[in-house]
Amino acid sequence: MNFFREQNARRCRPERDSVTHKFSVGGHEGYITVGMYEDKRPGEVFIKMAKEGSTLSGVMDGLALTISLGLQYGVPLKVFVDKLVNTRFEPSGITANPNIRFVSSVLDYIARWLGGRFISSDYLKFNGEHVAAAQAHTPPIVVSPAANPSTGMTWVPGPMKLTNAHEGAPTCSECGMLMVPNGACYKCENCGSTSGCS
């Protein structure tokens, strides 16, 4: 019964320190403001999207309220962050934050930023970056057949396992299609643009 505070008491303070962070995901801008307790743990979250009245703005207001109430009743921030990381919907793709290059949704961005700021810098890493870094240090192995272009599926060396080439990939900032790994970055098969590699 340690999950909630004794007798479900809500822990609020009339004044607290806060930090505000501006973000941009797929051209959608917003602000995250986190109010902190004396020990610098987050106690409330506000998420403000630049486009007032949009559905996304309303959903972010509801999410911020839910996270804030949870934190005030003793739910660990890690519980929220772990559930929101890797959620996938539009807008997604390249961000303006050099520490969080790609995200699969605004929720993914918010979770990664909150996790990186208040839990561990490991949350700032995108799953695709781990794969690309591992591939960059692994000598190439030729496997035949390498890929089936009609399905987008590839065979992975080692124990035979079929994987989707688009899994964990960001969407193209130009046309919105899912990108595919291209060395240490991503390339759009539809329009040919890349995720910033040379």
Q: Key features?
A:
23% strand; single chain; elongated; three-stranded antiparallel β-sheet; alpha+beta; 198 residues
Could you explain how this protein is built, in words?
It is a single chain. This protein has two domains: 6-125; 129-187, no CATH class. Strand 7 (153-156) and strand 8 (161-164) form a beta hairpin. The longest helix is centred in the first third of the chain and has 18 residues, at 55-72. It has helices spanning 55-72, 77-84, 106-118, 127-136; strands at residues 17-25, 28-36, 42-49, 93-94, 102-103, 147-148, 153-156, 161-164, 180-182, 185-187. It has four helices and ten strands. It is α+β, with helices and mostly antiparallel strands and 198 residues long. The model is unreliable at 128-146 and 157-164 (pLDDT under 50). The chain has a three-stranded antiparallel sheet. Strands 6-7-8 form a three-stranded antiparallel sheet, with no helix packed on it. A two-stranded antiparallel sheet has the order 4-5.
